[in-house]
Amino acid sequence: MTGRIAFQGEPGAYSHEACRKAYPSLEALPCATFEDTIETVRKGDADYAMLPVENSTYGRVADIHHLLPESGLHIIAETFVRVHINLLAVSGTRLEDVEGAMSHTVLLGQCRQFLGRHGLKPVTGADTAGSARHVAELGDPKLAALASELAGEIYGLDVLGRHIEDRAHNTTRFLVMAREPDFKRRGEAGMMTTFVFRVRNIPAALYKAMGGFATNGVNMTKLESYMVDGSFSATQFYADIEGHPDDANVRRALDELDYFTSSMTLLGVYPADPSRH
C-alpha cells in the first residue's frame, strides 16, 4: 500500500504511532485538528485519516462522534495502540538531573506514581509530541517530556524511563477512514459494522430497536448516545456491532432497527482488528 495517511497532532503523537504501526509504508501527514484531518482526505491531499475514537482509561474522544457522521468519509479499518509513556530528555541527561516533566494533562495524570517517586514536578504542555519538541528546542536537562518513543526518536531525545504509565492496560482505539467504502473484504478475525441512528418518537422505541440484535444473535459491542445540536430532546446513537450487513442475521437485525428509527447512517463495514479479541 502506498500513499498518504493524515493524523491529528504533531510528528511523534500517538496518532502518528498508530499510522506507523498499521500502515508503515504510507507517508504520515500531521494536521492541526480533527476537522483538518478529515478535510485533508476529503480534498484528496491524503488517502486515509487515522482518528482516535476511544481510550480504555478515559472513554470516548471528545467531539469525534459528532464529526464522523458529517465527515463524508467511510470507516475501512480499526487499529488498537497500547499507550506506552516514556520520560524523554536531551541527550546526556541523567534522571537525577531532571526536575520537571512536561506533557498533556492526561498523560501527566497517568504517571503520578513515577513522578512522585522521583520528585518530578508536572508541567502542563499543549500535547505530548509538542512537549517533546519543546524539550528538545529548550535543551535544558532540568525539563523532560512524557511522550512516545517515536517522539523521542524524531526529536533526538534520550529515554530516561520506559513504559512508566501507572496502568498497564491503557489502550486507544483508532478508526481508519477513506473517501470510498469497501464492503467486499472479509477479515480473519471477523467483521465490524458501525452506524449512527435516531429512534422514532414512540414509547420504548430504543428497547424495541435493540431487540432485533438480541433475537438474531448479533453482538453489539458499543452503544453510546449524544445530543444533537445542543438539544436535550434530540438524541443520536452510535453503535458498533460484530458482523457484516450481508450476513443473514445482521441483515434481519438492521431491518428491524430500520422499522423503529427515523434515520440510520452506515459509517463503515471493516475487518475487526485481531487484537480486539
TrEMBL record:
PROSITE patterns: ACT (PS51671), PREPHENATE_DEHYDR_1 (PS00857), PREPHENATE_DEHYDR_3 (PS51171). The lineage of its organism: Bacteria, Pseudomonadati, Pseudomonadota, Alphaproteobacteria, Rhodobacterales. The gene is pheA. It is an enzyme of class 4 (lyase). Its EC number is 4.2.1.51. It catalyses: prephenate + H(+) = 3-phenylpyruvate + CO2 + H2O. One of its GO terms (biological process) is L-phenylalanine biosynthetic process. Residues 4-179 form the Prephenate dehydratase domain. This is prephenate dehydratase.
